[in-house]
Fold this sequence. Notes:
Blueprint: H1 3-25, H2 40-70, H3 81-104, H4 106-121, H5 126-147
Amino acid sequence: xxxxxDKTFSIILLAxxxxxxxxxxxxxxxxxxxxxxxxxxxxxxxxxxGLLSLQLFYESWKNAVRERITGGPTTSSKTSSTELKKFLFxxxxxxxxxxxxxxxxYMITTFLFLCISFQVMQRSKLIYSILxxxxxxxxxxxxxxxLLGGSLPSFPTF
Length: 158
């Protein structure tokens, strides 16, 4: 594991998150028929990115100190071709998710993306993957549209 790269990348991500939060506060409060303001998600994503970058910095610092004390790396840093294939498959699925979101709706697209991602990460327990993906898709859709008053494309409009 390259701890210098991890630390440097975490600092870049922290700076990006600060920029994201700053820019989110500059968005006007006008919304298109939605009671959820347009600053909610960029602000939340910026804060989450900042917290995750701080965690990455801490973990890479802690692992670097551990390696100095023990005299070597604790885990193998070599990425296997299987892990790379999984990453590329999920990355391609994410691109397809963005492309099909408005065409076939949030619930179907999210359900399919989550099912595919769960099965790529672990090929067992298909029923659990389907149940979790369906529950998450329906739950987030309900919370966002009913409780927060936002709007999402629910089902295909063809």
